[in-house]
Amino acid sequence: MRWALLFFALGSPLGAVPGAGHTRASLHIETPTVAPGQTVWAAVRLEMDPGWHTYWKDPGDSGMATRIRWQLPPGFTAGEIQWPRPEIIRIPPLTDYGYHGEAVLLVPITAPDRIKENSVVLSARVDWLECKEICVPGKAELSVTRPVTGSPTPPAPESARFFAAARSKLPSPDEDPYAFAHKPAAISGALALFFAFLGGLLLNLMPCVLPVLSIKVLGFLKDTGAAGRKNAWLYTAGVVASFWLLAGALLALRAAGQPLGWGFQLQSPVFVLLLILLFFILGLSLLGVFEVGTSMIGLATFSGKTGALSAFFSGALAVAVATPCTAPLMGPAIGYAITQPALQSLGIFTALAVGLALPYLLLAHFPSALRWVPRPGPWMITLKQFMAFLFFGTCLWLLWVLGLQGGVNVLSRALVGLWVLGLAAWLYGPLRSNARTEGGKRKWTGLALALAVLGVTTALPRSTRHEIQWETYSEDRLAQARAEGRPVFVDFTAAWCLTCQVNEKTTLSTRSVQSAFKESNVVPLKADWTNRDPVITAALERHGRSGVPLYVFYPVGKEPILLPALIKPNDVTKAIKGEMK
């Protein structure tokens, strides 16, 4: 470690940007130059404060894997992250996998066969979750410049030692990276089954499941006797089938060598968003904004309609809402399940399902227990409305998760989508009910459906693969890019600036502007003035402006060009092509 400290203290040529929280990130390239066709190794180094940790590619029962989003010159490609062996981090009842102290993530970067520039800039945005007693999201914009040479050059001794040390912490090629990770699940099969059953039983009390279970208990007040027992078994079948579906997906991912764990599907922003939309629309229904029949999964009991399909999908809904939660004893049981052959794994998940469904099944067969439940009355409406706020609370938590996964833009789209979906529910509810003719009802239904589709499509996350990869504005980065002989485009913007957001959607997100940036190797810098920033304020004043938006293009070797506040795609492309004075 001493050599490493000396290496960084001397001010190495490696890029380094300190983090603002409890983790510092830096970017390192193994060789001092880059040659055409060469595969160079990059390393993202995370240094955590004592007691804090970041996460492995499979974070375990909680947490979030560190993500690296590369911004590379045209033709360059980045490979998969090579993860060092993680530590097992126990926070009972959870078991996580991650790193204390330091983690070095290696990534191969391949250069194209031809490179026109004399130097290249390799940039990356790194997002991580750092945890101690609390968890805090962290991020860093990292960048390193390397000159281009005709043939590869060997790494400096310090760099060679640094990368050799990082490679020594990687799992060997014949080593199962999950074998050591799941060692703590060294429990017997019988004990794992018992833990799974108790975990499933306790899952009923978790905040994710309790609202759905409460709704089913209310359903008992209407369905008793043989009909109630039949619905209970159908509900159980829905729970078991859904857990088998989850187990099948986990086993398939394991066979494909993918990272997995309980709630793995929540790693998908699309799945998280769909859960948010579902819970939001269920909450509106419970508040009485609109009423539906059996098409609303599992809530048909409120509308007086029951059916086999409704009972079955109520079980599926219970499993869907249970996946964000982990009950006590579930961690060891699931850890055991995903290391066992398929049949044993299926048995563990079946025990979980039986535990989750058992209270409903017992109440159906022993209706005398229902005497502890108050008689039907107006209180049911009050309780139903209260349940809506439990769903909305779950929505808030999932929105937080979505924000961590996709950033503020994805979160904003979700909120707009929810607003449109809420408007659609209102049109389908009061306005449709008050229509005097069938034609009027059909009109409001059609409009509500159209708005619902618009809300869902608006909320869905968009791919950012082809979007401009903005770098954070700084005087140093601007000067560095101009010294490298690259044109620079600076977007002075703010989240509260409506004109800025319109320009971003109508101009800066267009394919013509994105292509012009890429073809001319423009360095895009975003000066975000959402919060007070004296550096950005001073930059605005230098250009004679006191607010945003402001768009400045810096041609190579020429004076900067100020573009209009209401910017059009042609304004940008003409400036880049030198057709604007």
Structure write-up:
The chain is α+β, with helices and mostly antiparallel strands and 581 residues long. Helices cover 46% and strands 18% of the residues. It contains 18 helices and 16 strands. It has helices spanning 2-9, 157-167, 177-181, 189-203, 210-220, 225-255, 269-286, 308-322, 330-337, 342-365, 379-406, 408-434, 438-459, 475-483, 498-508, 511-519, 534-542, 569-577, and strands at residues 15-17, 23-29, 39-48, 53-60, 67-71, 77-78, 87-91, 94-100, 102-110, 119-131, 135-147, 471-472, 488-493, 523-528, 550-554, 561-563. The strands form four sheets. A five-stranded antiparallel beta sheet has the order 1-2-3-9-6, covered by helices on one side. Strands 12-14-13-15-16 form a five-stranded mixed beta sheet, sandwiched between helices. Strand 1 (15-17) and strand 2 (23-29) form a beta hairpin. Helix 4 packs across helix 10. The radius of gyration is 28 Å and the shape is globular.
